[in-house]
Amino acid sequence: PQLHVTEPSFPTRRSSDLLDLEAKIKMRITKKQGGIIGGVVAVVLIAAAIGVHAHYQNRWYPGSTFNKVDVSGMTYEESVKKVKKSIDSYKLKIKGRNKGQEMISGKEIDLAFTSEEKVKEAYDAQHKKSVFSAFFGGSKTNVTAVTLSEKKLNKKLKQSVLVKGNDSYKITKPVDATITYDTNKKYGVIQKEDKGNYLNRKEFYNATKRSVESLSKTLNLTDEKNNPDVYVKPGLYHDDEQLKQMQTTYNEYLFHFIQWDMGNGVKETLGPDALKDCITVNTKKRTVKLSQAKVEKWLESFCLKYKTQGIARTFKTHSGKKIKVSGGDYGWRIDYDKVIAQTMKALKKAPEESAIKAYEKDPSKENEQALLTSLKPVYSHKGYRMDYTNKQNDWDTQNYSEVDLSAQEVFVYKKGKLVFSTTCITGKATPDRITRTGVYDIKEKKLTKTLTGADYSVPTRYWTRIMWTGTGYHYSSRGDWGSWSPTYYKTNGSHGCVNLTLSDARSVYNLTKIGDPVFIHY
């Protein structure tokens, strides 16, 4: 039999124990390296700190300023020398609005370096602390290193062209943004504010003083970010929401076309072109108001335009002579108070918003119609006709009566012909009893009437009123008709009426009608 020998066998894979051992060995190596690196960093930081301390041992710490002039890192002597040199040649150029400029030299205002003793005290106090206090939140050192004469600076600025202006540089105060009428667009638009160049003297002085003390070479007054209050500001700006609402109110008043039909194809219109002058915009009070007084002024002109009462009329007398008679109350007269009432009622009613927007977009005749209010004129007195080319042709030339005060006679015309004439006695030639001249009309007719005055009460017949003050044709039972003459009235005249005999008064009463013109003349 053969003999077989078997050798022992070992596993070929790495066990978990061996892996753990390997990780521990690597960790020990990493920690050792980290310790070395940390040590190196610490050495570097210590060296840097020593270097920083050494560098700033005889220098101003970071963030140190002389009146905002940075002297960080300078030696004391360097900083003083730098600032003194800057002071000796110092000039400040001030730039204002509208290309305005002013130059101030340090010598004009006694600019000088302050006491070195105070500066040295600040320097020594700084170096009692660690330099790192300046890096890590410690208080900065700001030394007042310059002085100036505030009196001389103030005087210099008061005389400055930026304050006083001259022929080539005008000083203008700020103007508020407002609402104005655009003649092309035909509605109210926002007019942008004018900032002007009027300085707030206190702020101007303070800004200049700060610039000088910090030894700045320039001061830009137009820089609103750094100098927001140096110029006096407008009270209202174009983008203010209140102004936009004011514009809406303005156009609600403006967008009215009030039209009166005067007849014969003639129309009178109160529209935006006239209403713009009746609207008051107060930017200080933030109000927009319709001025009734200004509307009334326009309406007064309108009423006078169509008024014929009192005008001179060419008149052919009974003798065939042409004369002009003016005064009296005959003719056309618009009732001013009633027209004011109807106009203000129309203006206080805001137009439809859609109509306003349409007109703003296109101020055409078509869109104007949507804003139109049609009215009829209200007259307190009317004439026979309205002649727009010749006002005096407003009376009935065929039917009228005439009183000739010089002849003391009455004439009545019907259908263009003289149909009746008679003698009369008119008012006594005294201021309180005289019969007034002019052109009037027959206003009232009564078969009987009692005439009263301060010292009389007389019943009469065939009353034909000429004037509302009490003058008229009427029968007078006076017993002196036999003494009549063309001059009798001067001493024995009536209280202003046209006295007639009973039959003559009846004839005048029957031949005239209400509205007929009455010409009274000498």
Folded structure, characterized:
The chain is built from 15 helices and 28 strands. It is of the alpha+beta class and 522 residues long. The longest helix has 40 residues. The protein is elongated, with a radius of gyration of 52 Å. The N terminus is likely disordered.
List the helices and strands and how they pair.
Blueprint: H1 16-55, E1 65-66, E2 69-70, H2 76-88, E3 91-95, E4 101-105, E5 112-113, H3 116-126, H4 132-135, E6 142-143, E7 146-147, H5 150-158, H6 161-164, E8 178-182, E9 187-191, H7 201-213, E10 218-220, H8 241-254, E11 257-263, E12 266-270, H9 272-275, E13 279-282, E14 287-290, H10 292-305, E15 313-316, E16 322-325, E17 333-334, H11 336-347, H12 353-361, H13 365-369, E18 372-375, E19 379-381, E20 400-404, E21 409-414, E22 417-423, E23 438-441, E24 444-452, E25 457-465, E26 472-475, H14 489-492, E27 498-500, H15 502-511, E28 517-521
Parallel strand pairs: 1-6, 3-10, 11-18, 20-28, 26-27
Antiparallel strand pairs: 1-2, 3-4, 5-7, 8-9, 11-12, 13-14, 15-16, 17-19, 20-21, 21-22, 23-28, 24-25, 25-26
Helix pairs in contact: 5-7, 10-11
The stretches of 5 or more residues where confidence is low (pLDDT under 50) are 1-14
What is the beta-strand fraction? 15-25%
Largest sheet: 5 strands, mixed
Oligomerization: single chain
The largest beta-sheet arranges its strands as 22-21-20-28-23
Distance between the termini: 190 Å
Overall structural class, as computed from helix and strand content, comes to alpha+beta
Number of beta strands: 28
Please give the share of residues in helix. 25-40%
Tell the overall outline. elongated
Number of distinct helices: 15
Average residue-wise pLDDT: 90
Radius of gyration: 52 Å
